[in-house]
Amino acid sequence: PEDGVIIIKNPKTYAPVPGSSIDLNNLFNPNMNYNPNTGSFMASVGSSPNTITPSPDFLASPFGSVYNKLVSQNNSFLCLLDKYNPSKKLSLNLIYSEIQNNDIKNFDAQTTSTYINGVLSKVSIQFDPSKVITTITRDNLINTYERSEIGKATDIIHEALHAYSTANNIPTGANHNVFNEYRDLMISTLLEYNSDNKLGFTYNQINELAYKGTTNSTEFSTYIQTLANTNKTSYNTELANYDKRLSDLNWSLISTKTN
């Protein structure tokens, strides 16, 4: 499609999202437009993301099935990837390997860019296998957790937003403040995934998942402070409560054994 006019690939009918005033049926109306300059959108792309190259290891990884669902059924996600369609001179690679950069070794994933003669030619998204499984020992029990399906989707969409902002020459910065401009897109992509796969999460849960990876941003700090003011608690109390809720959303228990 021409820039600025995005055509629906798979028109859908959505049930209401619990706790949300967002009408997904209206949001994905094929007669609405998308503005790539502001990040605002009202529809999604109709073209196939042919210049996106997931590695075999990535497709075989726990992220592979989630990615396949996103590219086959999620119109909002395809909207993010439109910069990488065959009419653009950009490519996007998805990799599943350990992150070697010591500055970000605690990160679940990273997005990097390749420039040729000063021109952006390739963006790579790397997911770290060591961050998919975690083990927690409490008393005499050893609990093993895997990143949940919605947690994996959140990681993929978050990094796709990095790729999207890179393709649009918008630096995200370490504090992720630029993500404030894309929160509606992040939330809507997660809402669509949640609805398509009947995961049953509420709008409030999706909203909190969308903050993952942006906890240094001004908007996140404002969100936590607002909770503290509303609940008459402290910022640190609400931050700890948020971390617990996010952990519950982000991880699924897969085994328990006695130490």
Shape: globular
Distance between the termini: 58 Å
Order of helices and strands: HEEEHHHEEEEEHHHHHE
Strand content: 15-25%
Low-pLDDT parts are: 1-11, 24-50
**What's the overall average pLDDT, rounded?**
75
How would you sum up the major sheet? 4 strands, mixed
What would you say this structure looks like, in words?
With 259 residues, the protein is of the alpha/beta class. Helices cover 37% and strands 20% of the residues. The protein is built from nine helices and nine strands. It has helices at 24-27, 56-60, 64-73, 75-80, 149-167, 183-196, 203-209, 218-231, 235-250; strands spanning 34-35, 40-41, 52-54, 91-96, 109-116, 119-127, 133-138, 141-147, 251-258. The chain has a four-stranded mixed beta sheet with strand order 3-4-6-5. The chain has a three-stranded antiparallel beta sheet with strand order 7-8-9. Strand 7 and strand 8 form a beta hairpin. Helix 8 (218-231) crosses helix 9. It starts with 23 loop residues before the first helix and ends with a strand.
Brief write-up:
With 259 residues, the protein is α/β, with parallel strands linked by helices.
Give the arrangement of secondary structure elements.
Elements: H1 24-27, E1 34-35, E2 40-41, E3 52-54, H2 56-60, H3 64-73, H4 75-80, E4 91-96, E5 109-116, E6 119-127, E7 133-138, E8 141-147, H5 149-167, H6 183-196, H7 203-209, H8 218-231, H9 235-250, E9 251-258
